[in-house]
Write a structure and sequence with these properties.
Helix content: 40-55%
Largest sheet: 3 strands, mixed
Order of helices and strands: EHHEHHEEEHHHHHHHH
Distance between the termini: 36 Å
Number of domains: 1
Strand content: 5-15%
Number of strands: 5
């Protein structure tokens, strides 16, 4: 099905002929397409080893009806999750996950009946496999936000989720949906940030909760300036966030030129053991 086997650890999955079940992010998907979402999420991409690792965690397998399109949030979504549904601009596209029950809830997209767009569904699927993929009893509230988003804020979390979604689609030749891009305000700075830092450090922070090492990497390169990037992203100021990244990168390369590779910010003591 969508799972592949490992030789050890996070080794590369065995090579197999692969063709995604959909080729356009704007195609409609309904409740019967949950298995197709899992196929794409577990398919070829830079994040495949991390997602497959989380898919194999005991208790991570979702129920057969995990992907649900709802027409009434009030009657079809568990009450603790209802407040999470928000409109995105004027599109009325919304969705959320129930991490405890391993389910995705989405309202139908405009112009569709009992369906949403593939790209929106994949976004929620990435959320579903973010750390903690299987919450520990007492360690996560009923509305269990991913560790990455909880540590760095909504903008960082949603932007990273959408950037990962797009990376998976790009790797499999799935075209992005050309309309209604509700996460673009957060995704722009996160794409730039993710192009700078090591994929493994970033992916382990998002999928395994290793946020200390990712914070250490940002602090080592940018000092406390990374918090300005996060702050501007979280309040929906992508131009300022991108400008801050450019400024921090210019300062980083200036230090390297002036002092050599050892002239960067010192490794914060509290993160030195995990960086």
């Amino acid at each position: 099905m969508y799972l592949r086997t490992y030789a050890s650890g996070l080794g590369q999955p065995a090579a197999k002929q692969y063709k995604p079940p959909f080729d356009k992010g704007g195609l409609p998907v309904g409740g019967s397409d949950g298995h197709h979402l899992l196929t794409i999420l577990g398919g070829p991409s830079a994040y495949q080893p991390y997602i497959l690792h989380n898919m194999a965690v005991t208790g991570a397998k979702p129920p057969n009806d995990f992907f649900r399109i709802v027409t009434s949030v009030a009657s079809q979504v568990p009450k603790p999750l209802q407040h999470l549904f928000r409109t995105s601009g004027k599109t009325l596209v919304a969705g959320t996950i129930d991490r405890w029950m391993r389910r995705i809830y989405m309202i139908q997209a405009p112009g569709l009946r009992d369906a949403t767009r593939l790209e929106y569904a994949l976004h929620e699927g990435v959320h579903l496999y973010a750390d903690p993929v299987v919450p520990a009893a007492g360690a996560c509230p009923r509305v269990c936000v991913g560790t990455f988003q909880k540590i760095y804020g909504t903008g960082f979390g949603e932007g990273a989720t959408q950037a990962i979604t797009e990376a998976i689609m790009d790797a499999q030749g799935i075209a992005k949906y050309y309309r209604a891009r509700p996460y673009e305000i957060y995704t722009r700075p996160m794409r730039k940030l993710m192009a700078i830092f090591d994929v493994d450090v970033f992916a382990r922070a998002y999928f395994f909760g290793a946020t200390a090492a990712f914070t250490a990497a940002m602090e080592y390169r940018w000092g406390p300036g990374w918090m300005q990037v996060a702050g501007q992203t979280n309040i929906g100021k992508p131009d300022k966030a991108v400008a801050e990244i450019d400024k921090l990168e210019a300062a980083h390369f200036k230090r390297l030129h002036q002092r050599g590779p050892k002239g960067d910010f010192p490794m914060p003591p509290r993160y030195s053991n995990v960086a």
